[in-house]
Predict the structure.
Amino acid sequence: MRLSLVTIFPDWFSGAFADGMIRVAVEKQKLQVDVVNLRDFTDDPHRTVDDSPFGGGPGMVMKIEPIDRALASLNVGEKSARPAGTRVLLTSPQGRRFDQRTAIEWAALDHLVIVCGRYKGVDERVAERFIDEEFSIGDFVLSGGEPAALVVTDALARLQPDVVGRFDSVESDSFHSGLLDCAYWTRPADYKGWSVPEVLMSGHHANIERARREEALRRTFDRRPDLLATADLTSADRKFLRTLERERAQERPAEQ
Ligand code: SAH
């Protein structure tokens, strides 16, 4: 897939793209990332991308013209004239919260464009005319959309085919199947007398698989019970969760 990041800080991404899964995805030609410098689409000597807000008040607002031209250079014009398989996003704390389900959806697109916002915000006509969706990476305010665009790039890179060595690793990760992942241990089996669960050393694959599944269910139950409502659960999973519920109820101190 192709990912185009429109930003006033193109250098911001270079370190992050030089290592890890993003680099692997690019090297394997599963991902093409172009970083588009918004200032290249200005037409004044100061390469101005912002201006003060109509109505006054603090902060600056990103101008529409450079964004319009940058998107035109990527062949993604107004929303109405956009090819299927292409989506243009804007970073915004007010947007839809990015999650693994969205990552899976976007990873299947041909071309994803992310406009990185800055300053107090972006001229609203950009969202109205050009943006298919605004997305947020959480309920906090960043100084710019670049970290959010990087988060999305990383999440999509590892979902491209043949990027992560074994795709079943991606599938067992948290959220992918609707649960949190299980816990992991590695050598040494004994460290300062701190041991690891015996079942993992047993070599009995069916038991190991069941123990991991139960650990994933236990973690999800304790840390993110909200996920259980939509997770894909077998009857054995449901039975285990009922046992867990009873166990937890017994652990709770009796109400006064
Ligand atoms: N005045 C805006 C915040 C501006 S922060 C408001 O209160 O809604 C500057 C820019 O950083 C935003 O335009 C957006 O592009 C980006 N940004 C800030 N927080 C973000 C978040 N949680 N997720 C994604 N982008 C964010």
